[in-house]
Amino acid sequence: MFNAVLRSVARRSLLQSSRGAGLAPTHRYLAARFITDHAKATIDDAIKQNDLVVFMKGTPDEPMCGFSRAVVQVLQMHGVDEIASVNCLQDPEIREGIKEYTDWPTIPQVYVKGEFIGGCDVMVQMHQSGELHELLVKEGILKADVETEESEKK
Question: Using CA atoms, how far apart are residues 107 and 77, in angstroms rounded to an integer?
């Protein structure tokens, strides 16, 4: 945990030094956010317990932002019926913590088999390129199509 915090602070310091060169070094460190133990445990549990999980605003049945809605729609277009999710609007620690956890500034965030895939833009790009379907089949989230299996055997 300490190493992750140290890396996060160091990374932020480098980024902030290029953005806000006028800040004193101690203020740069004070400006860094830290993920709480509660948020980290909740995020870790959700990622470990689900093959696919979306940290989003709202729920898959009632997304509360257009980006979260788009991610849900893309997953549903691929036949993912059961979408595990964490509603980041219910807990401010989770909402800020997930951004710190991945060093990714936006919500929604999608994880497949414990690996951070990306947010809305990444999911849409993967959908358009066909990579998303391949990933979902490879990781066992979706069953391979009979046609796909037959063409791979040839």
Answer: 20
